[in-house]
User: Which sequence fits this backbone?
């Protein structure tokens, strides 16, 4: 536990100059402890969308997880009316700051991007299979991938995560939470989630890393395709290099790029049963074995994506008034 006075002093009384960003949970501040250690302090805001349930959720999960590709929590502070989480400080902030920025994107060449893809895959594999809690993240996106000094990725923000125990492997919720554009079709439309929901999000993330374009709001000049549909069409026509971010074209390894796109397309298939487990994803990324041909992805075009968004919005508005999540756990 951290003392409130310690955090007030470390952050300059939560000075705007030390503010790193703001999300659904609240603001995040950079701080320096008396021993010189830099920290990141996530401070729960009064009107937080995530609130106290997610605060405790994140503490419970991250405190029990240890992996080089997961953010490390140092402690928390629950004092007076304040609720805060304290993490290791990562100076390069989040992945979205680089891949969606024309200036910073150049510094993240293909070798670094491929390392990030593999690192996130290993982090997810740990959550799904190797951690004792067996966790589904439910909000994997570029903003939640933090980068350390050497640009190694660390998955962060476990406020929406859920764990499975015993024979549980799937669940259904009446309150759909997360970020549209990364949500799988079965989750966005029907509230159904499993490890394959994270696999879908991972596939979207890989296509964004390769292309430097966001899936959400992607605009194809000739056809009404989503980024997923565009990538699948290019792959089908053997034009996969057209997907690559021009900023990194000169540093690309075509074999690695092709394999990354191919694996990503397998991850974003419409039917969750067609998507690979993360253990297979890790192996496919590092091997030269023949891969199966991906079927047309979920949310292939703008129409299907916008319909799912409307469905997700209506479900959320209908069931989230009291911020209670109702889940039905299903056996394997």
Assistant:
């Amino acid at each position: 536990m951290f003392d409130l006075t310690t955090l007030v002093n470390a952050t300059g009384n939560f000075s705007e100059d030390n503010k790193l960003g703001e999300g659904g949970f609240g603001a995040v501040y950079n701080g320096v402890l008396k021993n010189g250690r830099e920290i990141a302090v996530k401070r729960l805001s009064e009107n937080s969308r995530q609130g106290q349930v997610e605060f405790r959720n994140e503490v419970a999960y991250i405190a029990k997880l240890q992996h080089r590709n997961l953010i490390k929590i140092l402690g928390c502070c629950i004092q007076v009316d304040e609720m805060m989480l304290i993490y290791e400080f990562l100076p390069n902030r989040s992945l979205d700051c680089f891949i969606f920025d024309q200036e910073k994107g150049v510094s993240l060449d293909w070798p670094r991007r491929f390392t990030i893809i593999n690192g996130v895959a290993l982090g997810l594999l740990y959550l799904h299979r190797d951690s004792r809690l067996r966790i589904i993240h439910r909000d994997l996106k570029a903003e939640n991938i933090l980068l350390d000094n050497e640009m190694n990725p660390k998955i962060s923000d476990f406020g929406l995560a859920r764990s499975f125990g015993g024979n549980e492997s799937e669940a259904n919720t009446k309150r759909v939470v997360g970020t549209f554009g990364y949500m799988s079709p079965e989750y966005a439309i029907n509230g159904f989630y499993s490890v394959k929901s994270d696999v879908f999000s991972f596939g979207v993330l890989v296509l964004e890393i390769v292309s430097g374009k966001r899936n959400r709001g992607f605009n194809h000049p000739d056809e009404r395709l989503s980024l997923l549909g565009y990538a699948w069409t290019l792959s089908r026509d053997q034009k996969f290099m057209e997907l690559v971010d021009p900023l990194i074209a000169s540093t690309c390894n075509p074999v690695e790029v092709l394999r990354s796109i191919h694996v990503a397309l397998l991850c974003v298939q419409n039917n969750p049963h067609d998507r690979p487990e993360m253990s297979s994803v890790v192996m496919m990324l590092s091997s030269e074995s023949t891969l199966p041909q991906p079927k047309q992805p979920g949310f292939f075009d703008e129409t299907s994506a916008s319909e799912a968004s409307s469905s997700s919005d209506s479900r959320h508005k209908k069931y989230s008034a009291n911020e209670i999540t109702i889940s039905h756990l299903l056996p394997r």
User: Anything to note?
Assistant: Confidence is low (pLDDT under 50) at residues 316-332. Residues 132 and 169 are 14 Å apart (CA to CA).
